[in-house]
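Lab channel / #folding
Pinned by the channel admin:
"Please post every new chain as: sequence first, then the structure tokens as a reply. Keep commentary short and put observations after the output so the thread stays searchable."

First post following the new format, from NK:
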Amino acid sequence: MTKTRKYKKSKRKKKRFMRKTYSIQKRRAFGRKKSKTPTSLSIFPDKSPQLQDKGVPTKLNSFTTKNVAIRDSKGREFNAIINDRLAYRRAPRGQNVEDFSEILYGPSVVQLSKSNYKKMKKGDSLYFDRGSVALRGPFKFINVTRGPEILLEVGDTAYEKRYLFSISVNRLTKEKLYLITGKSGKSKKHKSKKHKSKKRKSKKRSKKRASRK
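Reply from TO:
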């Protein structure tokens, strides 16, 4: 009988102890401030360029480049790289893009890598393939900093703002950047006009000399 009483008493004490600890934990939890649910910007370690301090570059990746420019100064948009050229293709609804699409070509490009990034000059234009509907850019090359890291500048999709971006040279295998290498046809036409004008001048001079004689 004494054993059973002692056992019942110990069981009651355990129950009381458990109730007290549970109530204390509940009070502590209730007293704490509720943590805010993380937004899409706070989940990632890299800040969005809109939240970055002025003059501080943002790490270039698919998340941070969501709201940067997609059109060049001529209003052109590109969504593919075909035969080492920037291209835009759009198929009618219900058709595969590869089968039925009219392709509009842009300038020639080369993919940026560890072997060719040193050939870039200040002001060179680049496009970034973030795996979405449109290529992001054009980015303007500024310089190469310690690391080495490539420093780039690009505009916003809607606002008149410019953002700084940086990418490590070691990440060029994962992040696809394309450097524009092709020259526009206008410059070639302009050169040909100069040559023609020189020929005309030489003909005029020879005629004047003949008339003097």
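NK: Confidence is low (pLDDT under 50) at residues 37-45, 184-196.
TO: also worth noting, The longest strand covers residues 102-111.
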